[in-house]
Amino acid sequence: MMDGLLQGFGVLMTFQNLSLCLIGAVLGTLVGVLPGLGPATTIALLLPISLKLDPTGAIILLAGIYYGVAYGGTITSVLMRIPGEASSVVTCIDGYAMARKGRAGAALGIAAIGSFIAGTFGVLGVMLLSPPLAELVIAFGPWEYAALMLAGLSLIAFFAASGVAKAALMALVGLFLGSVGLDPITGTSRFTFGIPALVDGVNIAPLALGLFGLSELLFLALSGDKKPEILRPPSTLLGFMPNRTEWKRSAMPIARGSVLGFFVGLLPGGGAVLASFLSYAVEKRLTKYPEEFGKGAIEGVAGPESANNSGTAGAFIPLLTLGIPSNAVTALLLGALLVHGVQPGPMILERQPELYWGVIASMYLGNFILLVLNLPFVGFFVRALEVPRRFMATAILLVCVIGTWSTGLNHFDVLLAAAFGIVGFLLRRGGFDLGPLVLAYVLGPTLERSLRQALLISDGDLTQVVHHPIALGFLIVSAAVLLSGLVFRKRPAVVQDGGS
Amino acid sequence: MEIAMKRRGLILGSSLLAVPALAQARWPDREVTVLVPFGAGGSTDVSVRAICAEAEKILGVPMQIVNRTGGQGTAAPTQVSQARPDGHTIGSAAMSGLAIAPHMFEVGYTLDSFAYLPGTARFLYGIGVRADSPYGSIQDLVNAAKARRITFSATGPPNNLGLFDLNRKYGTRFGFVPFQSGAEAVTAAIGGHVEATSQTPPEMIPAIQSGRMRMLASASPARWKEFPDVPTLREAGFDVTIESLLGFVAPRGVPAERLAVLGDAIQRAAAMPAVEEALGRFGMVPAIQTAPEFERAIREGFVRYGEQLREAGLARR
Q1: Does the model's ipTM exceed the 0.95 cut?
Q2: Membrane-crossing residues (chain A) (predicted)?
């Protein structure tokens, strides 16, 4: 293995591959910062260009974009409450609250450091655990996915800051939004009202940008000319960094997020998004300061931001060892490999060791580059908060509209985002949490598809689940989560997740 | 919006070129845009890029590939059908968008919305089981499916229609379990969650080569070149094939002489060895058809798939 890694660094130490690693990381950060423009779109755009490169170089570049995005996605979530990527939605909650308390630098700093630790941990995992974990992926069938998604949904019990009934209602709305589009089994259209743009379902970009970004804009507009509450950021680099207490409180969330995200990221489906929500729920459960969650708890940033990074690394295991992409981005990477005539699978280590180890080595270096790139810019990004509110609001609007438009080149999506903006504003004013809505929207389609697949396989017999121990395990976990979240929880102070 | 902008460009372009001396110039005089219904890096995209890379050498103008995804592969044909019929906007077309999707949900075009260009390639399909499955041949599998329900994974039509046809003609009970992507379908089969799969080479070949899957039959008109010993369904005695072709269409109303120029270039390009190699990486084979042959194949496919989808209960009402 050490030989392999050394060979990998040998492959990496050419001018071309080093530059590609750097370009990938920088591009990834940029793409992460720009809401709407996601890694899938960018990689698709760059794929034709990457054909001019050798396969190792091409994958180093494209993979760099992929894991770089998980770094950049945090920035707008913290500064503007606009999720840069779906996997940073949950960061909007406490990251933005921290920014309003003047701790934007700490939030961004801990996110970058957590991302680095988790990303490096993820690559280590890919290197050491690939073959056994590939078997785990194969062991997951429809029953197992359905049960896993159910366990994920049970997490809303922890988001129920506004009360169980409200959270459940939001989850139902999310499930409904996730069911728009073609029926996953019969392929006929549902709730599309004859609108062609809805055949592919409600896109995550208008949903997330509308509910979080545009609704915040309405709050800003309503708050009038009040002075922004942002404290003047310190002028030294160290002043931006998390302080001692924040470090101490973040250490365990980063560790837990790294492990959690890696395993969830392995599995096809909502990988990074599920990982970030899961980590948030776990931290909220374990923290000594539950009353701070929703008001700027650093654990709520450190955990999820670590989880979504190790998740991106985890997704490389099924891709490289089985040729199974676990999300849209790795599907594109698979396409890139095939275009170059590289057949991923267990044979890749024997047939193309220079590619396998070259990519692994580039991921170690890439994560380091990202850390070095991101930290010094934290101060720069935090200064953006000094921008007067009327300019900031215009920028938020512009970013949301362009972000929505760029994902599908579809004006319907922009209208949809506007509608979600108003809905999000009203819901937040009514004291509803938007977390359960997004979580249910992301998990719902996989839950429905897997459950219906399982029922097709068993010919409609729900009791067949007893033959699937992994699935049973998840069901027990969901029950336990629901119980501990609903029955045994301390009565929380009602958290108003609404603007000013 | 996008179309409107393109139109403005066209008007500007044609007014600049409205000089008498140039009126007789060779067509095409500027780039041809090719709309691809699926994203970059997939089998359709790569095949179309390979063909167009050769065709633009013959035409002498660039062919610009635009990935117009959405609407389950129907957004691109919709845009082609609405484009200005001057031959500068064409699209790649396959059975899925033209002959299958209209049976399943509402689309903004009919088969008469297009002028047809040549067909270029054929998708391959195969039937596989996991390596330790008790079924060693396609006959074993079919016999088992006559005795009891056998589940199989596939993405949507046409991948699943081969086994539906077996059900119809030979009284088997294959139960279709849909999966979102080919990779998930194949994984479900090698994990033993379903008993068989009907998919395409890019996902099946790694599973077979790593010893996790056994291929029982090619569901296409020909055997796969990677597994020359595995028979086609037809050779095994079952009158069933899945036919899906990749070709090109233009908006209806493009002048015949322009269609001829484009058609000639596409047909010659598709015969190049570089194209065959690119197709092979994504499990496709060249299948060159003249424009009328391609049109007939699509129209026949539309009728045949319509019947099969209705019988399978997958067509919209």
Answers
A1: no
A2: 20-47, 59-79, 106-130, 136-160, 167-184, 204-222, 259-282, 355-382, 394-427, 470-488
